[in-house]
Amino acid sequence: MTSSSAPPRKTLSKIACNRLQKELVEWQVNPPLGFKHKVTDNLQRWVIEVIGAEGTLYADETYQLQVDFPEHYPMEAPQVIFIPPAPLHPHIYSNGHICLDILYDSWSPAMTVSSVCISILSMLSSSTVKQRPEDNDRYVKNCKNGRSPKETRWWFHDDKI
Amino acid sequence: MGNKIGKRRQAVEEKYTRPQGLYLHRDIDHRKLRKLILDCKLAPCYPGNDECIPNKEECPICFLYYPSLNRSRCCLKGICTECFLQMKPPHSTRPTQCPYCKTPNYAVEYRGERTREERGLEQIEEQKVIEAQIRVRHQEIQDEQERMKKRQEIRSSEVEHNDNINTSPSVSSQAYLEQEFGFVSSQSLSTIPVDTRSLIRRSREDHFDMDLEDLMIMEAIWLSIQEQDTHGNRSSPRLQDCRSAAKDSPPQGLACTVAALAERQLASHSNALATERPTVDRHPSEYKAWLNACEGSSTSVPPTDDGECSIDNCSEVAEAGTSYAGSDIAFDMARAVSLRDGVNMASGHLLPESFEEQMMLAMSVSLAEARARSSPQGVTWM
Fold first, then answer.
1. Do B83 and B61 touch, CB atoms closer than 8 A?
2. Helices then strands (H, E): number in chain A?
3. What is the mean pLDDT of residues B60-88?
4. Are B256 and B224 in contact (CB under 8 A)?
5. What value of ipTM does the predicted structure carry?
6. Measured between alpha carbons, how far is B71 from B107 in angstroms, rounded to an integer?
7. Is the dihedral of CA B7, B9, B10, B14 positive or negative?
8. What is the chain A residue with the closest CA to B335?
C-alpha cells in the first residue's frame, strides 16, 4: 500500500476548498490536453488519467495520477504520485513517487493542478529512455511503511528531463 | 522613497487594516500591517469576493476577487495582502521567492487600483501568451496533417475493410472536405476528421478541437466584442450560462451565436455522412471547445486610445510574460482570461448564415483590427 497511502488526515481549510472548487470548474471548462479528471465526490483527492503525448516514448500509454491536497493548499504543495503501474522513467519510482522539484521544494502557490499535470507530462515527454531511477529498489524499500514522497529529502540533480 | 506621482491616497476604513480571516495567520505584527495599509504600501484587506465583479482583480493564489492587489516588484503580478502575508513568514531567515517568477527577495508594492493603462499593459502581456499558443497550435496542426497523410495512405490501400460501428461510407476525409469547402484552403480543414467516433473523441480530448482558421475567426470576433466592451464592464465569466444558452437557442452573445452556428454547420456536414450520429451528445463538448477558443483569444486589444504605453514598460511586461515558467502558462491563460458579458448584442444583429459569411465577417473584423493597431490614434468602430 505504498501507492495509495492514506489521504492527509486534516480536512481542507476553507480557502483550500474554495480554490479547489474553482480549479475543478476551470478544469472542466478547459482541461489540460492529455488529461482526464476522474469524477469523484472527493475534492481532497483527485485521480487524473494521463495519456502519453504523441511522438514520445509514452505515446498512447495511459497512467493514473493521484493528487492529494493538504489542509493548507495552495500554501502547501499537493502530494502527487502515479498509481502503479507507474511509467518507466528515470525520475519515477516503481511505487509511483515522482522526483520533480515543483512537487516539493519549488512548489509555488501560484501553481495549479493543471500546471502541475502539464509539468509532469512534459517530464515524461522529454524522456529519452524508459528506465527506473538507479536507486529505485533502495528507495522503494525505504518507503515500505507508506511514507509520503513529501517526506523524502529529494535531491534534484538532473535539469534536462 | 518620496511621494509617488499618481498614487491614489485615500482613507482606508479601519476594519480593512486587519486580515479578514482568509488564513489563520500566525505571528502577524498587526500594528505594522495597519501602518503599511494606511500608508498605502500594501493593499487594504478587503474581503475577497467569490464572483468576478466589474473592475475587480483576481488574486492568483486564493482565486478571490479584490478591488485592488499588490504587485510583485519583479514581475508585476498581483497578490492580495492576506496571501502575501502567507508568502512571507515574518521570522523566516530564508529569503522568499516570488511565487510567480521565482526571483529571490520577493517584494511587493501597492499602486492602488489599476488604471486603464495598466489594464492595457496586462492585456498586451496576455496577448503575447495567446500568440505563442497559436504558434504552438499551428505547429500541432502541421504535425497532425502529416500524420493524417500517412494514415490516409494506409487507409486508401485497404478501402474494403470497413468498420461496422461507423455507418458512414468510407470516403477519404480529404476528398470530402475539399468538395465541401473547396474555397477554403483544404490544408487546414483536412484536420477535421469526418469519422464520427474520432470527432467525438477529439472534441473531448483536444484542447482546442479546431483549426487555426477557426481560432483566428474566434479571435477576430472576440476583438470586436471586446472593443464594444471598452468601457470596462468586466463581469463574471458565466461560461455555464453561455453553454446552456447555446443549447437552448437562441443564444445570447455574439460569440455564442457564432459558435453555435459553426457547430450546427459542422453537425449538418457530418450528418450528411453518418446517419446515426449522436448529435446531441456531441454538442456540449464541442461547444466547450469553442468556448476554450473564445476564452483563449479573449484578451487581445491593447487600448490604443491611450497611446502612452512606453516601450520600456512593454518590454518589461513581456519579459515577465516569458520568464513565467512554461508550466504556468496554462494556469495563466486559464485564469487571467475571462469571458465578459458585455457580449449581449441582439442575437439577430449578426447572423452569418454560411461558412463563407462567417469568414467574411471574421476577415472584416480582423482587417479593422489591423487598421486600428497600425493607427496610433483612437479606434473607430462601425
1. yes
2. 3, 4
3. 92
4. no
5. 0.87
6. 8
7. positive
8. A26
Q: Is A99 a catalytic residue?
A: yes
Do the Cβ atoms of A34 and B77 come within 8 Å? no
Other CB atoms within a 10 A radius of the CB of residue A28 amount to 13
How does B328-340 read in b/e, with b if 16+ C-beta sit within 10 Å? Answer: bbbbbbbbbbbbb
* Segment 59-98 of chain A within 8 Å of chain B by CB: 74-75
B88 CB near a chain A CB, below 8 Å?
no
Marked catalytic residue, from A17, A99, A117, A143? A99
- Alpha carbons B269 and B194: distance in angstroms, whole number: 9
Contact list in B for residue A110 (CB cut-off 8 A) is 60-61, 77, 99-100, 328, 331
The string of DSSP letters for B106-165 reads --EEE--SPPHHHHHHHHHHHHHHHHHHHHHHHHHHHHHHHHHHHHHHHHHTTTT---SS
A126's CB contacts (< 8 A; 6+ apart) are A160, A161
Q: What element of type H or E holds A49?
A: strand A45-51
Contacts of B147 in chain A (CB under 8 A): 54
* Interchain CB contact of B148 with A (< 8 Å): no
- The candidate with the shortest Cα–Cα distance to A18, out of B98, B77, B51, B339, is B51
Beta bridge partner(s), residue A48: A37, A65
Stretch 164-223 of chain B: residues touching chain A, C-beta under 8 Å: 205-207
- Cell numbers given for B172: 477519404
Asked if residues B217 and B294 have their Cβ atoms less than 8 Å apart, the reply is no
CB contact under 8 A, B64 and A55: no
pLDDT at B299: 37
The answer for residues whose C-beta is within 8 angstroms of residue B148's C-beta and 6 or more apart is: B173, B174, B190, B191, B193
Whole-angstrom distance, CA of residue B107 vs CA of residue B92: 15
A13, A19, A111: residue with CB nearest B63: A19
Q: How far is CA B250 from CA B239, B245, B256, B258, B359, in A?
A: 16, 7, 9, 11, 21
- Could you tell me if B255 lies within 8 Å of chain A, comparing CB atoms? no
Closest by Cα among B296, B227, B297, B216 to B262:
B216
Pick from B23, B292, B295: which is nearest to A15 by CB? B23
Residue B129 exposed, middle or buried by CB count within 10 Å (0-12, 13-18, 19+): buried
Predicted pLDDT at B179: 40
* Interface contact A18-B64, CB threshold 8 A: yes
Rounded CA-CA distance B307/B297 in Å is 22
pTM above 0.80, yes or no: no
Cα angle at A108 between B121 and A112, to 5 degrees?
80
Q: A126-158: per-residue pLDDT in tens? A: 999 999 999 999 999 988 878 889 888 887 766
Contact B331 A112 (CB under 8 A): yes
In chain A, the residue whose alpha carbon lies closest to the alpha carbon of B287 is A29
Q: Residues of B with CB below 8 A from A102's CB?
A: 327
pLDDT at A100: 94
